[in-house]
Design brief:
heterodimer, A: alpha+beta, 6-stranded antiparallel barrel, B: alpha+beta, 6-stranded antiparallel sheet, 9 strands
């Protein structure tokens, strides 16, 4: 029984390397992925913040949108029918954070969109990638050829030593700024390199042909500054950085405004903009911009030492029986040496410094609404 | 003093009618870095198999169940200040709580060290 369940899980091109390095393999989004290595989540987290961490994110979906007209602007205009972001304005060699929205204004997935000059390159979440690809095919096939780049691995190299570690194999990366992206030769392999990540640290994401992934990762790990990092630390790092985890902090029931992602919707797509609306759920999302929302995603700092985890119900005070919201991500922040969380609260209680309570094992624990990121980011802008 | 073990990876040091209870080294290695420990209140009467304490790692929370019934006589306050003791000295300084044993016959269902070693092998 167990064997059959295990065999139904997919493996990334780096599976053997994870196992060889003592990675504790767990099911995640249909893949067998390392949750941690022998160093453990705490050390892996702190190492990423002080040196460099290497993450296998090959389970994520990589897609190319190739305009049939040959003009990348046509692919951008087509994609704008599915996302509330300004994609036309993404310059060649740059990328931008975006969301696929549904007709109710909810979020189907969040993604990165890169302009590679003659086509767009998309990175989407593992758990959503089949639906995302079908969604793109259903809506954009007239304008674009949609290529699933399933033969590529994806790794992230994050932390203050990421640049020096990667520069040994691709000298050009030192000139890249946050959100710069494009094809680069790395150790002689045809990669796509972007200066971005999911930890709040400076760093890079590298798409590499699957057959060369192990060679490249092995070479990067020869550097003593670089340690392999599992999904456990990836989660605590992104939580400290205030970054959303799709399916938890944002989903089909939250609009980008409720999700506190207003910054990601450019003025050109808002009311009065050059290409206002025209994406699924525009009416609701634009009304959220104009009239405000009744609830929003906030950062939360428990006052005590106990982590307050996903699903914990929130209350306005220690006694009330009326739930006001829920924690959507929560745990321990190793860099802060304190618990951190995020969740949804009524807008009237969403101001920084507001004290609210979470129910944990039958007790009401006090938390304060706090600004995010919890740990300042170190992006090279 | 007798040391006994549960299949849930707790140890009990039995001295007279008092049991000192903690988690095993195997348990801490499975939990990972412990960042928070919640202990029962002194004076609480625990029933066998009732959730008595909570151990939290960066990633997850795990319950520690009362391996036997009894009243909580004392808890290890040092764990609140230094939860990492669970990782560094699970079988020693990181004891969780002491119980006044309610029913000695419950000890009969526990494992000795050899049996526990076989259980985790």
């Amino acid at each position: 029984m167990l064997a059959r369940e295990e065999s139904s899980l997919k493996r990334t091109p780096l599976h053997a390397l994870h196992v060889a390095r003592g990675g504790k393999m767990v099911p995640f989004a249909g893949y067998e992925m390392p949750v941690q290595y022998p160093a453990g989540v705490l050390k892996e987290h702190l190492h990423t913040r002080s040196a460099a961490g290497l993450f296998d994110v090959s389970h994520m979906g990589q897609l190319a949108l190739r305009p049939k007209s040959g003009q990348v602007a046509d692919a951008a205009l087509a994609l704008e029918r599915l996302v509330p972001q300004d994609i036309v304005a993404v310059a060649p060699g740059r990328q931008r954070y975006a969301q696929f929205t549904n007709v109710e204004g909810g979020i189907l997935d969040d993604l990165m969109v890169a302009n590679f000059g003659d086509h767009l390159f998309l990175v989407v979440n593992a758990a959503c990638k089949a639906e995302d690809e079908a969604h793109l095919r259903a809506h954009l096939s007239e304008a674009c050829i949609i290529d699933s780049l399933a033969d590529r691995a994806l790794i992230a190299l994050q932390g203050p030593k990421a640049e020096s570690a990667l520069a040994k194999f691709c000298a050009d990366v030192t000139t890249m700024r946050f959100m710069d992206t494009g094809p680069r030769k790395v150790a002689g392999f045809d990669c796509f390199v972007s200066r971005s990540g999911y930890t709040g640290e400076d760093g890079f994401e590298i798409s590499v042909p699957a057959e060369h992934a192990e060679t490249l990762v092995t070479a990067l790990l020869e550097n003593a500054d670089v340690l392999p990092i599992g999904l456990g630390a990836r989660d605590s790092l992104r939580l400290e950085a205030g970054l959303c985890l799709y399916g938890h902090d944002i989903d089909t029931t939250t609009t980008p405004v409720e999700g506190a992602l207003e910054w990601s919707v450019q003025k050109s797509r808002r009311t009065g903009g050059a290409r206002a609306g025209g994406f699924p759920g525009a009416e609701k999302i634009l009304s959220h911009f104009e009239k405000g929302v009744s609830r929003r995603r906030v950062g939360l700092r428990p006052e005590g030492r106990a982590p307050v985890r996903e699903g914990a119900v929130l209350f306005a005070d220690a006694a009330s029986s009326e739930p006001i919201g829920k924690v959507t991500s929560g745990g321990f922040g190793p860099s802060l040496n304190a618990p951190v969380a995020m969740g949804y609260l009524p807008t009237s209680l969403a101001a920084n410094g507001t004290q609210i309570f979470a129910e944990v094992r039958g007790q009401r624990l006090p938390l304060q609404v706090a600004p995010m990121p919890f740990v300042p980011n170190t992006y090279k802008r | 003093m007798t040391t006994l073990f549960t299949s849930d990876h707790e140890w009990l040091h039995i001295e007279g009618d008092v049991a000192t209870i903690g988690v095993t080294d195997y348990a801490q290695s499975q939990l990972g870095d412990v960042v928070f420990v919640e202990l029962p209140k002194v004076g609480r009467s625990l029933k066998k198999a009732e959730a008595a304490a909570v151990v939290e790692s960066v990633k997850a929370a795990s319950d520690v169940y009362a391996p036997i019934s009894g009243e909580v006589l004392e808890v290890n306050e040092a764990l609140a200040a230094e939860p990492a003791l669970v990782n560094s000295d699970a079988g020693g300084k990181a004891w969780f709580f002491k119980l006044k044993i309610a029913d000695k016959s419950e000890l009969g269902g526990l494992m000795d060290e050899a049996a526990y070693k076989a259980h985790t092998a």
